[in-house]
Amino acid sequence: MASADPDGDGTNVVEYTGALPADLVRALAWLRGHLSEPVQLDLLAEVAGVRPRTLETHFKMFLGVTPLSWVRRMRLARARQEFVRRGTNATVTDVALNSGFTQLGRFAAEYRKAFGELPSATVRRARESSAKRFDRDLDEAMRLTLGALPFAFAVARSQCDAALEELSRPQQLAPDYGLAKAAAGWCWAQRAAHNFSATPDADRRHASLLAQQAYELAGNDALTLTLSSGALVLLHELEEADRRLEQALALDPWLAYAWIRRGWMSAYLGDGDGAIRELRIALHLMPFEPLRHITCIGMGCAHFAAGRYDRAATWIRNGVEAYPESYWAQRVAVAAVALTGAGTEARRMGRQLMRKDPGLTVSQAQRAWPFTSRFMSCLGDGLEIAGLPRA
User: Fold this and answer.
1) What is the residue extent of each domain of the chain?
2) Rounded to whole angstroms, what are the CA distances from 267 to 244, 295, 304, 370?
3) Fewer CB within 10 Å, N or C, the chain?
4) Residue 89 has what DSSP assignment?
5) Is residue 339 scored above 90 in pLDDT?
6) CB of 323 within 8 A of CB of 154?
7) 3-class secondary-structure state, position 277
8) Tens-digit pLDDT profile for residues 215-236
9) Which stretches does DSSP call E strand in the chain?
């Protein structure tokens, strides 16, 4: 943790250089193993090694909730995972009590609010699933899809094409497997938004169809929901994308990729502080590639939205250096450098970007993402300063 005085007014701004403070990491690690126990703030603070007030502050600053709210969310997620895992051996009463809920009526109400169904419905579906025979084609489709995901997560032209090629076979083998369709939908949306192909309108239609099919097939799978949400974001359907993300995080609060998309969503909606908080959670959960560079780029966009153009450029450079084929993010970095007043450097960066993406224009860059109008106006101003053509 370091302090800085960027405005020269004698006021220090605390800047955390890690993903999450060490005391919060210790508290979360302890809670994972003690979810069914009553939450005692004094004991939790002792485990974390800080005073109770400091721990509460860190929960609210970095996670956006109180310790009790965080535990309640984790308990609900664990209960659902138990229903799915145990199948025919699960009873609502046993799972509720083992997850720390002593009032069964309140448990059922909170569960329905979080997941859109009563616990009994989840148990029934789990029993039906466990009774199904082994499906060799589905098993192979799952294996192939998981192998294609690193290409899909990369958000780069060649990897996007590779992912779509890899995902064609699992869709043929198991047409009802939602994750393969969600990943393919995300890739088609990338092609349209990031100028990866010459057929953006057709790509958007593919993305929209696959995202909807994936949701209908696997609306209770967190990763499928997250990928379909990502596709909808690039189609500028933010309200439905946000709803699916919240559902994904209710299902699996520890899914790093969902927190990455949650951070990007907050950035799109103009909530820079929320974006940084959520992306810090993602970095804590998965501080390595291939997701790390997307998180860093998202941090840069959040700083750009807040007018911190030097920090925006630094974060995005970090992400692109880790994964050079993510040069599409350089659009924001170029604009950020220009808006710091470093026109010569911005024009040099602009020329480098145009060599990698020769058809790029300012208006095209402004259509790529659903950021706020202010963000896009600043992006356009910066890119014009850097010498990119308007249209």
Assistant:
1) 2-64, 72-131, 133-253, 271-391
2) 17, 12, 9, 10
3) C
4) G
5) yes
6) yes
7) helix
8) 999 988 999 999 999 999 999 9
9) 2-4, 13-15
